[in-house]
Amino acid sequence: MRKIDTRMLGIRACLFFTVAMAASGSVQALDATTSAALDAAITGDHRTAEDKARDVYRKPKEVLDFLGFRSDMTVVEIWPGGGWYSKILAPALRERGLFYAAQYSVNPAYGYQRRYFGAFLTMLGQTPDLYRDVRVTHLSLPYQLEIAPAGSADMVVTFRNVHNWVGRGYASGRYAGVAFTAMYDALKPGGVLGIVDHRWPDPDTEDPDHGNGYISKELTISLAEAAGFKLVGESDILSNPKDTHDHPRGVWTLPPTLALGDEDRDKYIAIGESDRFLLKFEKPVE
Predict the structure, then answer these.
(1) Whose CA, among 85, 102, 105, 152, lies 20 to 30 Å from 113?
(2) Domain architecture of the chain: domains with CATH
(3) DSSP per residue over 168-190, as a string?
């Protein structure tokens, strides 16, 4: 009978446990300095009560932990809008890292983008000490693509934007590959791309125009892999089983938008924010 190497079994068990924990998003990999920087940013007075009320749904520290964020990184946030995540990323990176906010164009096509971009610039101007080193760049599909110098970023993140790139407003997906290529080009080899979006559970039934704001993780993965990325992890920490995905005005029916106003307001508040996936990709080291 062959002798069983219990030491190797132990190593394999540890490896299995580590992989399983990483997949669940529960690994606590943050170094002490990064953890403290994130805590200070998340609890800071520069974030409004409305910002902080969303932490229970968006779980910023857990998300950034899962992605391997460090406070000495160069990080690019794609389409930060009004700056909900930027209010965490920029202060956390201020002392040791570098933060690029890749906004819409200077003169974006849609009214909501103009409002968000204007609010973002106002935020930077009103708190210059906190945001003094933020570098504002642009991702305007399909032509304005330099979100950061090529090969300079350790991490690129984008929150609830990919569904836009495959929608009718952006040529029904024709420009999505361009967006992923821009993110790929900005990253260093081995750099991380983190994506959060509203989860459509069945890729066979998702709206081809994505007018409801949802996108399947399968489609998202295929777009990233087509640009050269490798999927290295996914997490369900942002899942919401109460979300039935069939609301009258899509994801905007739910908080924080509550597009129906007072109609069934309590019902949608009880559901909470949308069901979301969290994906982690890497740019391969060639």
Answers:
(1) 152
(2) 6-282 (3.40.50.150)
(3) GGGGGGTTHHHHHHHHHHHEEEE
